[in-house]
Structure formats: C-alpha cells, structure tokens
C-alpha cells in the first residue's frame, strides 16, 4: 500500500513510551499528534479526503482513542458516530465480543441499535497491534448486519501481526504510518 502524503511528518509527532503499560511494550502515544493543531488537522484531513467519496452510513470508533479521531472524521463527513466500548461501559442493550491483545485479553461491546442491517461503516482506531480489537469491533458490526467498508488507523505495528491477521480475515485496512523495525 502506498504511504499517504505527510505520513513521515505525522509519524514524527508520535511519541514512543517504553515499557508501558508493562515491561517490553513500546507504546505509541498519539497525544503529541493531537495536541498540535497543525498535525491534528492534517491527520483528520488525511482520513476525510480518503473517505469523502465513499458511500458510507456511519463511522465507528474503538474505545478510547478511536473515539477522538472517529468522532471528528464522522462530523467532517456528515455521518453519525458509533462508539465501540470496553465491556460494561454502555448503558443500553449490547452485544459483546472477546479478543486477545498484545498484553492480555479484553471484551468490546456495541449497542444493539447502533447500526442497521445494510449500513456501510468506516471503522477507526488509533493503531493496529495484534489486530484483535479491530477484528472484534468488525465482528460486532457484522453481527448487527452492517458492512465494514474499511478499517482505518493512524499506526500499524506490523511486527505484532495485526495487519496480516486483518488481511487474512479479508477486512480492508488503511493506516497512515508504521513502526516496522522501530
């Protein structure tokens, strides 16, 4: 996949935090990217320009950093936004999906009325590590009858195998930058 314009510039604003949340994990912190109005606008515009001509019905964002980007992209595309949350955080009827991540396991949930059968959805999170979160979120949307047109993230961590797992599950994936070998 061709790297988006400005990918290196955006990547240079992502901070690496070693050994967080546990020893051996190199956490890719997007908050510096969001704090700078120039890089935040460029980041949002990169996604908006990619999807502005798609026939989409909704944007879904994964808890929690996917909410930041997903809500802004949904607003800019004049679409609704659906939160996919960690277990126990949504107040209405939900469906759940458990998954493995790079340092444990977790469960995500979505409201049963979040999307309609036939809805075309863009799924956004901040990064792809093992791919578990993105695939669990896509499964939830599929269980409600929606089609995930594409999964999108700022960062790919290809050495953790998530982007390959997503591809192996036939889910199109777009990422702006990767930290292969970093």
Automatic annotation (TrEMBL):
Pathway assignment: Purine metabolism; AMP biosynthesis via salvage pathway; AMP from adenine: step 1/1
Keyword annotations of the record: Cytoplasm, Glycosyltransferase, Purine salvage, Transferase
Domain of life: Bacteria
Location within or outside the cell: Cytoplasm
Pfam families attached to this UniProt entry: Pribosyltran
EC number: 2.4.2.7
An individual GO BP term: AMP salvage
Similarity comment: Belongs to the purine/pyrimidine phosphoribosyltransferase family.
HAMAP family named among the record's database cross-references: Aden_phosphoribosyltr
Free-text function comment from the UniProt entry: Catalyzes a salvage reaction resulting in the formation of AMP, that is energically less costly than de novo synthesis.
Record's subunit section: Homodimer.
Protein name: Adenine phosphoribosyltransferase
Underlying gene: apt
